[in-house]
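Cation-translocating P-type ATPase
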Amino acid sequence: MTHIDAGSELDPVHPVKPPASEGSVAVRASGLTSAEVAERIARGEVNDVPVRSSRSTAEIVRGNVFTRFNAIIGVLWVIMLFVAPIQDSLFGFVIIANTGIGIIQELRAKKTLDGLAVIGEAKPTVRRDGTAAAISTSEIVLGDVIELGPGDKVVVDGEVAEADSLEVDESLLTGEADPVLKKPGDVMMSGSFVVAGGGAFTATKVGREAYAAQLAEEASRFTLVHSELRSGISTILKYVTWMMIPTAIGLIISQMVVKDNDFKNSVARTVGGIVPMIPEGLVLLTSVAFAIGVIRLGRKQCLVQELPAIEGLARVDVVCLDKTGTLTEGGMDVTGLRPLNGADEGHVRQVLGALGESDPRPNASLTAIKDAYPDDAGWRVLEALPFSSARKYSGASFSDGTGENSTWLLGAPDVLLPAGDPALAEIDDLNAQGLRVLLLARATGSDLTDPRIGAGAQATALVVLEQRLRPDAGETLAYFADQNVAAKVISGDNAVSVGAVAGKLGLSGAENTVDARNLPTDRAEMAKVLDENAVFGRVTPQQKRDMVAALQSQGHTVAMTGDGVNDVLALKDADIGVSMGSGSEATRAVAQIVLLNNSFATLPSVVAEGRRVIGNITRVATLFLTKTVYSVLLAVLVVCSQVDYPFLPRHLTLLSTLTIGVPAFFLALAPNKERAKPDFVKRVMRYAIPSGVIAATATFTTYLIARHHYTGPDALAAETSAATLALFLVSMWVLAIIARPYTWWRIGLVAAMGLGFLIVLVVPWLQTFFALKLIGTTMPWTAVGIAAAAAVLLELAWRWVGKKWDA
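Predicted structure tokens:
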């Protein structure tokens, strides 16, 4: 090869184009010098696109503080500070505390995300001063020469400087799945990735000038969108606002115009009716639950690149697993060499050694062969064809130094051999033992780019490889089976071999394997085969994508795991893409979840975290929405009846804290293994509406009876106390239902809340502070009786809803 020194007249941005060929090229760019790099940094020609894994601190504070409901509550709080005692303004302090908790938790999550993003960041290999070194993407400057190999992501726009059978997939940018063969001088676009071969390119656009880089930056930013949970809560809040505005207006008119009461007392009771309509803690609790989920997973070296992925994985009912790197460890060992057709074993070893040296970036199989058979013959490589998932083989042409040239292929026996070849029977026996078998064959032609090169190739030897099973893979598969999540093993390897590996790990249905070359192309028929079987071999990258789409067409929520470049398209199309940290840059870029410790066993933790978050938020959302429903209905009943609103803000602050705020926080963080179900809004409202109606009816009934029972100047305080007792007891029963199934700490939580209210009722200074004092025995026991009847109605209503909608 002709070598050009860094100090020559070569333009680093537009290098001299050598004579192009389909194989390798004769010019090797040595890259920029340190002085040239410093000069470009000074000019600002650096790849300074800020790829962030999370929102900035300012965005987090803004997102938690400046909300619609915080604004409403803030105005009401200021009013109350002027017209009522401080105890009627407690709701404002609660909101400040809650918002502070939300900010702190999200900042903790940001710190975790940012730290993990640095660990998992791709570091491209760049040539400078004649040597190659891995640097951060943000340190790349204009004119840098960047090396590429299989699985590497193109991080900036550029121009090919060197190409060695370089095939690039641009599907993430163009939508075209077929790889593009690149030659020197061709354009490279950021966001594409290498599927085969190698080479180098020169950066011609860096930073925000590269349009594809801008798209990548936007795609990689922290996001809370595209989440059924969050969009459902937004829908609920929209309806709440519509209900709240006319109800609040009617309440204001009723209390301040129609009722001729003391002004300050009327304002206090009006605000007391408006504040509980706002489910202000629901959004906060969702953010906190997601943030804590990120922190918990971060401790297990799991990078959640998009927060809704936690929720999405909770909904998964099918997980597609790539065998290599997921069920098996990356390394392999050569366990046997079987010459065929009278081939000399010594010569076979020489060929395998030369093939190992012919690929500068060997895959796991070729690495094992390279380790087992060192190259001591010194054959010269004339042309090399890297392994491709689509071809299922690699190859090289050699000159052995005696003037004899030969071309060899190494790959899948059932692809290179014709059907019915006698060697296939022996191969099937080996595959049935879970061994991987590669065929070494001598090609009759010499053009490796000819797709028919394998036709007529002479079988020379079988190379038997044993894959290292992940010790934790069996337990992980058992977990998915226990959780009713169907596992589908999809691999490019021989189907029988894949089935044997899956069988060793205890996968149900592993004995029934399917060769993907026989899969129907019709999506519905393919989906039927996928539903009926669990192991698929000889799957091409495009088929992986088609299989994901077929499963999704049947209503399945699909997660896809993988670490190789052949998994990228399927990872991108799956509902949840999971990549190994040691996987290619391309897979890490498109996956929503990256397992930085490369442990498949981490996946159950991610599923459990998602189920915990979404299942618990659904539970506590019912608590919050029940309060909203009974608050709106009470306000409507008060307006229609033209009576004083029964509660001051301090009463509902106490009730909200004991029956919603504190319990919801603990319930939202509790373990929950139930698989998430769709229709979040409907499921929540089916329970919240009847619960709210029953609570409001019981409370207002108690209040009306108390108005007839008590007389005198202090009657309103006694009426309020009776109504508060009834509402607390009904709300506690709603909490008791939601806390099921009971554990010791759930029972303790409900009991502690009840004890808290009892303390308020019996401690004199707390009675005064909260304006709560039960007068006599008749009315308090009446309130208890009404609450008991309401509890029976609640039980019947919840059972009816559960039976009717399987909610």
